[in-house]
């Protein structure tokens, strides 16, 4: 499996029983863009609380580890695609990315707390602005990762990697894929 964000962790925790699941994550920790969602003024129509988000990610990772999921953090599969060779199936849960060069700007606004400043918080609370930032300004990342699969490996794409959206839809797609039986198994 590629990606340890909320969709990837959810999927891994659901299919780990009876399967050999390995999660490769490019960054040094689990959670993906969910860490940034915790810094936004609103998350799914509710005031965001960073401690709750951190606890949620830690609990998902702990559930995976309890079920025997192996994690490889700091694994850049674009540089070492051969790491995926031993697997029968690959799940791509690499999230979405901002287009139009917005990644640095959005990260800065969230990291500095500017997104919670009164004027900007009102702007980002607007349904039209939030819709644009969730959907139109981002794109799924699966296209650049499907090339990592080798002939004969099954490929499943879940979460924002398939289509940029909100976390609720991303996690729901992890549940759907797990129920269908697609997966990164050996």
Give the secondary structure arrangement, pairings included.
Layout: H1 6-15, E1 22-25, H2 34-37, E2 42-43, E3 46-47, H3 50-66, E4 70-73, E5 89-92, E6 96-98, H4 102-112, H5 118-125, H6 127-136, E7 138-140, H7 142-145, E8 154-157, H8 167-180
Parallel strand pairs: 1-4, 5-8
Antiparallel strand pairs: 2-3, 6-7
Helix pairs in contact: 1-3, 1-8
Give a concise summary:
The protein has helices at 6-15, 34-37, 50-66, 102-112, 118-125, 127-136, 142-145, 167-180, and strands at residues 22-25, 42-43, 46-47, 70-73, 89-92, 96-98, 138-140, 154-157.
What are its keywords?
186 residues, alpha/beta, two-stranded parallel sheet, two-stranded antiparallel sheet, 8 helices, 8 strands, 42% helix
Describe this structure in words.
This protein is an alpha/beta fold and 186 residues long. Helix content is 42%, strand content 14%. It contains eight helices and eight strands. It has a two-stranded parallel ribbon with strand order 1-4. A two-stranded antiparallel ribbon has the order 2-3. A two-stranded parallel sheet has the order 5-8. Helix 1 runs parallel beside helix 3 and helix 1 runs parallel beside helix 8. It is globular and about 50 Å long.
Oligomer: single chain
Low-confidence stretches: none
Q: How are the strands of the biggest sheet laid out side by side?
A: 1-4
The N- and C-terminal alpha carbons lie at a distance of 11 Å
Mean pLDDT: 85
Rg result: 16 Å
Helix content: 40-55%
**How would you spell out the order of helices and strands?**
HEHEEHEEEHHHEHEH
- How many helix segments? 8
């Amino acid at each position: 499996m590629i990606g340890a964000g909320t969709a990837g962790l959810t999927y891994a925790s659901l299919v780990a029983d009876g399967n050999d699941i390995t999660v490769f994550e490019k960054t040094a920790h689990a959670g993906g863009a969910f860490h940034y969602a915790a810094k936004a003024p609103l998350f799914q129509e509710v005031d965001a609380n960073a401690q709750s988000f951190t606890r949620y990610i830690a609990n998902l990772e702990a559930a995976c580890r309890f079920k025997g999921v192996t994690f490889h953090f700091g694994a850049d599969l674009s540089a070492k695609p051969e790491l995926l060779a031993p697997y029968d199936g690959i799940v791509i849960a690499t999230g979405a990315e901002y287009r139009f060069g917005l990644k640095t700007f959005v990260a800065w606004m969230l990291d500095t707390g500017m997104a919670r400043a009164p004027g900007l918080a009102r702007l980002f609370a607007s349904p039209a602005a939030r819709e644009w930032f969730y959907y139109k300004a981002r794109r799924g990342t699966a296209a650049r990762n499907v090339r990592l699969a080798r002939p004969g490996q099954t490929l499943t794409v879940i979460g924002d990697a398939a289509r940029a959206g909100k976390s609720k839809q991303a996690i729901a797609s992890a549940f759907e894929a797990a129920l269908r039986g697609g997966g990164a198994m050996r």
